[in-house]
Amino acid sequence: MKVEIYSDIVCPWCYIGERRFAKALAALPSADEVDVVFRPYQLDPAAPREAVPLTRYLEGRYGDRARGMLSNVSAAAEREGIAIDWTIALAVNTRTAHRLLRLAEREYGPAVQRALMERLFDQHFTRGGNIADPALLTEQAVAVGMDRDRVAGYLTSDEGAAELDAEFGQARAVGVRAVPTFVFDDQWALEGAQPTDVFLEALQQVAESPARKDQGDQCDDDGCAIDPPPVR
Predict the structure, then answer these.
(1) Percent of the chain residues topping a pLDDT of 90
(2) What distance in Å separates the CA atoms of residue 155 and residue 162, rounded to the nearest whole number?
(3) Of the candidates 43, 54, 58, which has an alpha carbon nearest to the alpha carbon of residue 95?
(4) Where is 221: in which H helix or E strand?
(5) Structure letter (DSSP) for residue 114
């Protein structure tokens, strides 16, 4: 089975959703037969190229609503064992980080890409890291087993840029309308940071009956099943 997760590094619900999905996958007996691949999506393509304090950036966009939004996310993250420090988090464009994640998946495989994504989430939400900084990205890539010289050279070039733009377009073409979106075997999809038991049920159903038809929209506060699901 292949699960593709359309996600953005600066999306807190993507981090929460990935953590819930990971718990569900760990409970699946056939987990070692599942490939998990992250696909790029940008919530804010116009985000600054130079990092700025995230709280200030959000207040500029959402005004007084920003504080309440962050409080709700923090509570949900804490329940999943995720510590978010909004006081040091930075707002910055994620294009370069997505390009690096693409390299990780293509040259090192889904497991390395997934480990890198986890580190980038942690850097952004917990450690105040600038995830557009080539030096930081290189260190995170090396930490998951990627070659330093290859990564450093890649990040200073425009290699993969056109392919990344094509993948952004592909996400729109297949109907991704929110992140995170989890696509199972190119046929079924779930939107949002669903509860762990929902992810587990989806994994079990796809594993046991690949031809099973989607049962329509089932929505809650964290997201909805897509009907019809996007097909790549």
Answers:
(1) 83
(2) 14
(3) 43
(4) none
(5) H
